Every structure is written in C-alpha cells, then in structure tokens.
Amino acid sequence: MKLYGYWRSTSSYRLRIALALKGLTPEPMPVHLVRNGGEHRGEAYRRINPQGRVPSLALDDGSVLIQSPAIIEYLEEVYPEPPLLPADPVARARVRGVAAIIGCDIHPLYNVGPLNHLRRDLGRSEEEVGAWIGRWISEGFAAVEALIGDDGYCFGPIPRLADVYLVPQVYAAERFAVPLAPFPRITRVAALAAAHPAFAMAHPARQPDAE
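Structure (tokenized):
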C-alpha cells in the first residue's frame, strides 16, 4: 500500500494512527500542500485523487481510496483486529458520534480552503482568522468533553475511533494556540495517547516530510 498525505494534515494524521493501530505500514508518498502552490493541485496528484485532497490510500491491487472516514471504515472491515469500534451498537454509535463532531463539525471549518478564503477573498486579518479557528475548535471540544469518559481513552481502556480523530485535533488546537485548560478529559486522552506506540509513530514530527 501507498499512503499519500501531508505531515501536518489532520486527516492524514488520523489515518496514520488508524493504520498504525492495525499494524499496517504503507509506503509514505508525501504530497506537499504549500510548495509550488500546493502539489495536491497538480495534474500528477489529480490523476490519483480527482478531488485533490489528502489523504489517499493506494492498495496493493492499484485501487485508490479517498476521504479518511471511508478509508478508516475500509480498514475496519478488512483488518478487524484490533477493533476501532466496540461490539455493542449503542456504544458504537457513541464512538462514531464523537468522531463525527471532529471530522464533520470542527475540522472542515479550519481546513486550508476555508482559511485561504477568509484571508484572500474576504480580506480577514490573521487575528480574525485565529479567532475563527479558536471558536470552532473550542465549541466542538466543549461537546466532546461532555461526551467522553473520566478514565482511560475517550471510551475506556483501549483506543477507539474517537481517539483516532481526537488526538490529531488536539495537535491542531495546540498549533493554533487554542486554550486546552477547559478540557481536562481531552487533555488526559491526549497525554495517554502520547505514550502509545501507534500514536507516537503517526505523529507529524516523525513523518519523512516533516518540516
């Protein structure tokens, strides 16, 4: 397998965690989102992923999967051990709900495209852009904080799908200087994950294209 991604991309980061938890080590294929106007915009990468987004996962048979939620679902179906979702349907829905808050409600609002639109097209200052990022991360984290447990990872003693999504979002919050003090449960999960080999392996700083 080949993993097309960017070291600092939140969605690439979450997919790297899922792959590492499953014991899978695809060949890294860095796609720089800034250099030369963004390599993801170029014809070569568009032939791999017509949307021009990262990550993409090329399978051994040449099939290419896009969108981190869909790729992680594929991994869960094809490589079911260790499971990222609990067996109980209600528990599964709760884990998926927290993942969706991050993947659907927080992350899209501060992705590269919206931020460039705020800066370039709407003429917003960096201070205003920072306030935008802080608002949506903080609002989403307030909901996550209320939904996860008081011990261990988000939902118990082993990492699940919610943790796969949450840890990269904490990294992004720290990158954009969003205060984390109001979220002790979230910071507990992040600290626990930092000591886990799969999360450590997937960290942006350990990627071959890290700057």
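The longest strand covers residues 2-5. The two ends are 24 Å apart (CA to CA).
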